[in-house]
Amino acid sequence: MKKTQDPLLAEAGTNTRLAHIGHDPSGYHGFVNPPVVHASTVLFPNSSTMEKRSQKYTYGTRATPTTDALCQAFDELEGSAGTILVPSGLAAISVPFLAYLSSGDHALIVDSVYAPCRHFCNTMLTRLGVEIEYYDPEIGAGIEALIKPNTRLIHTEAPGSNTMEMQDIPAITEVAHRHDIIVTMDNTWATPLFFKPLDFGVDVSIHATTKYPSGHSDIVMGSVSANAKHWPKLEEARITLGICGAPDDSYMILRGLRTMGVRLEHHQKSALDIATWLETRDDVARVLHPALPSFPGHAIWKRDFKGASGVFSFVLKADAEKAKAKAHAFLDALSFFGLGYSWGGYESLAVPVNLSDRTIRTAPTDGALIRLQIGLEDVADLKKDLEIGFAAAAAV
Question: The whole model's pTM is what?
């Protein structure tokens, strides 16, 4: 593997680093990409080595050269002490929760969290005896008032799922660490290219690599990267649970990383263009995009983030009794925008947003909330498609 302390690589630009991290051609007979190693059984040269496990690879669930290559790439991007790979973005949230929380502990979870995370907290963690409390995403340093003697973890996500609220991550981590509380962050929206959580005091950075690292809507995987203090417990939990990333998926994510910087620049530019255009429309009540000066959390985004990805939401203006019908008419009229969950791929997507599980940041009252993923298509074509949707909604 290419060493992380390579000074030339460490000082290189984003796209140069993405082209060279997580592989070492000299280690594989000159082949540019690391091989896909399929493995369960790994043989030992003798019984002493087997007893002591004193060789690099011992079993397929522990690691392979392919999964190691991807983990090293993420460590390069995150500045982390170690990374684990898991089968999904949700697993990337649940595994660290299981690693750091025990019965009787109290966990603070941001109310704008990814909905399946809330379900995991309200079901499995609650059954295991963990006390769950949700907090306002804009609470900042005020989170100190919610900390109890048994608070062990604060989970953050910025921007928030669907409603895009920004969190003051440095303020939260400063408070948390004074109380010896672990801070985890779902950073899927920004990727480590636009925000590096560990640089802002976060202990554990979580990603659904299904999204931008993959980039092609054909892989489901997650990654979790931890700082030196919290890495051993995370790795121990992964091994204990028997969870691992597949080598074929790891190879495809590695392939996706090579173009992630170029793709993100296109996603960012197109999404901001469309978001700005949507703000001018009378049939749009609000546009929820952190990079827009009109957005309430824009100042935090501008202070801490290096860029914005292709996902944002808007409120389709509608009276309460017509909101659902207008949203369905809008969505059903679209062609280039597919109706599908997830995001981060090359294709544009649109989904109606259901916020019925929220306890603090509830659904908007000025219309229907719709989330867009702006893909790699031409902006002019996407605007034409949205125009057709708006016309359909107006007819309701």
Answer: 0.95
